[in-house]
Structure formats: C-alpha cells, structure tokens
C-alpha cells in the first residue's frame, strides 16, 4: 500500500517498508558491514613513501600548504600556529592528533610558514606521531621534554614574527574563523574519505536498527552503534537515540534508560580521517501510525527541498524560504523554529550553523547536513555540493525509501523500517 502528497512541483511517494513480509534477521544483517574492511591501515614507517596512500596524503598536505602560503601573503603574516585538533587533522590530511576522543585541543601544535611545516610535540607524543600518523608527509619535528611548558617552544618560534593562530597563545593573532575558511573547498582525497565514512556510518546505523529488540533501552542501542562504529575506525562524536515519541518533546535527545517499545529514531555523527558525517534513521516494530507517517514524509520533503536547492552561490536565506513554504502548506508553519535545520560540516560536526536570515552563500566543495524534524519524525543525511550537483554520502543502503520529486527530479529519502 502506498500514499502520495504533492505541492508546487514537490511530490512524495512512500510505501510501508517491509509491509507484511516476514522479518528474516539473516537476510537483513547480511550487508551490515562494508564488503571490504574499512578500518584504516597503519602506515609502515620503514616503507617507501613515494607511492600509494602516503603519496596521496603528501600531495593533499602540499596543496593545503599552498593555501596557507596564500593566506600568509594576503595578510602579511610570517606563519600560522594550529592548535585545534580539527585544524591539525585538516592540514595533515586526516592525522589522528587530538588529545582524546572528541577533544577540541590537539595533542601537538603545528607551526607553518612559507617553507616549513613543523610539529611541536613532547617526547611522549612524538614517536607515535611520526611512525603512525605523519610518516612520509614532509613534517619536521620540534620536540620538547614533557615536563617543559609548551609556551616556551612556541615563544622561541614566534618571537618578533607576525603569527596567526586558531587557539590561544600570548602575542599571537587569533584568526580562528579565517583559518577555518581554508578548509574549503574539499579536496579530492577528502571527498573520497567522506564518501567512505558516509557509507560506513550508514551501514552501522541501519544494522543497529535491524538488530535490536523491543525492551532494550536507548542506552543499549547507543552501545550497539558505538561498537559497530569503533570497530571500523569511526569515532562516535554524537549518538542520539529517541524511543517512541520522545523526539517530539526533546528535539536533540541524549540516550537514556528509557525502554524502546514501538519505535526508535537513531541519529549519529561519526568522524574518521578527521572528517565528520551525520545521518538519522527510524525503525518501527510493526506498522507506523498515520500521524507519524505524515510527519516523516513532510520532514523528508523539507530535507529533499533543502538538498535540491543547495547549490553553489545560492543564498542560504533562499533555501530556507523554500523549505518554510513546505512546512506552511502542510499545516506546520512553526515547526522549523523547534529544531536546528542544517549546518556546514567537515572537520568539525558543525563548521557553521545555517541560519534562516544569514547572508551566507553556499560554496562549491562544501559538505552539508540538513536535518528537519516534524513532531517525533526526523530526516537527515550528509551531502556534498559542487557545480555538477550534489552527492549524498550517507545514502540509505538496504533500506526503505521515500521518493520525493522536486521540480521533476526524484530524490530518494530514507523511509521508516518496519520490522
């Protein structure tokens, strides 16, 4: 059985997921992991670094060094000092150099001028960094004893120089926002890494939806998902599990001890190679009710509208104008006020929040996460936009779809899995 809704060239057709078909756990879990192991391999520090993955990362770092040189020239600076974990991951083409999971601070500092890129590290961090993270990438090491104040080395390198930083350091120029802007557009390697991450994240979320049982708690489900992500080398930056109608009360829920009885919505953000991707999926034990189906379809239509009109050069205010019209025509004119609608993502889960009245224009080579919600229903995926169109990097895999047609173009959105 299927239903249809349509508005001003935006049309959605959806079905009932698995319907009355018997649920076969073996069939549904057959594709729960990538065909190839996606856990990143360790760099061999003794290997020839002239080819393969290391050479591709070296080329990516070289390109970013050229961006930094342009930044120095434009602002008449001598160097930059990167201190944030996401900034360091960006420049090192995905180096795992944070202090710990989810830390904003780097375990090292990165000093870059026109001719040199140097890692400032203590003697505890330096062996792992240069053997597992940065071998063959053209970095120098400025090492200090772990007992020494790091500001001493920074002071020696930056004395009588004009140096910008994304963190805090005495006598340096704080340029966090402008330095963050250097991350765009995404490079070819970054797009490949984001595509791989998106697929891995999607498979993990969908496999979790297929495998938990009624009566398990939101915390149980978050644990299942975290395990699936970590074994593939993906850091679970954000895990949100909302059982039944809890999402309608709390649009950004945390997982709690609440038991899942009828339905669960799982939203997750994962990080690998420094990059972040986000996706949301909903699973129901038995058929969903008409109200939830209508709300989920509306959220899917709003998300599809946002994706379709997210084009380079498009003012974000214009995208919001179109999405708000969908909310209004289906009787939910204020729903967009109740939850964050979207963000630019990348090396930070939220590089910048997309606000309705912003003068910001979308840029080619940007990654976006649109996540509209209606009542207890949410639709969310991560896309990359460029002059050719968009790519959904968290495209639903073995999953029911809602076909939304926007201006004659069909955008399949994730439906609800009925078990």
Note the topology:
Layout: E1 3-7, E2 10-14, H1 25-29, H2 52-75, E3 79-84, H3 85-91, E4 105-112, E5 117-122, H4 126-133, E6 140-144, H5 150-158, E7 163-165, E8 173-174, H6 176-181, H7 188-211, H8 218-230, E9 235-243, H9 246-249, E10 263-272, E11 275-284, H10 290-308, H11 316-329, E12 342-345, E13 352-353, E14 366-370, E15 373-374, E16 377-378, E17 381-386, E18 389-392, E19 401-406, E20 409-414, E21 416-418
Helix pairs in contact: 7-8, 10-11
Measured on Cα atoms, how large is the radius of gyration?
23 Å
User: What structural class do the secondary elements suggest?
Assistant: alpha+beta
Main beta sheet, described? 6 strands, mixed
Q: What is the percentage of strand-forming residues?
A: 25-35%
Number of strands: 21
* Morphology call: globular
- The termini sit apart by 16 Å
Helices, by number, come to 11
Structural notes for this entry:
- By secondary structure, this protein is α+β, with helices and mostly antiparallel strands.
- The protein has 11 helices and 21 strands.
- It has helices spanning 25-29, 52-75, 85-91, 126-133, 150-158, 176-181, 188-211, 218-230, 246-249, 290-308, 316-329, and strands spanning 3-7, 10-14, 79-84, 105-112, 117-122, 140-144, 163-165, 173-174, 235-243, 263-272, 275-284, 342-345, 352-353, 366-370, 373-374, 377-378, 381-386, 389-392, 401-406, 409-414, 416-418.
- A hairpin with a 2-residue loop joins strand 10 (263-272) and strand 11 (275-284).
- Helix 7 (188-211) packs across helix 8 and helix 10 packs antiparallel against helix 11.
- Mean pLDDT is 90; it is low at 15-31.
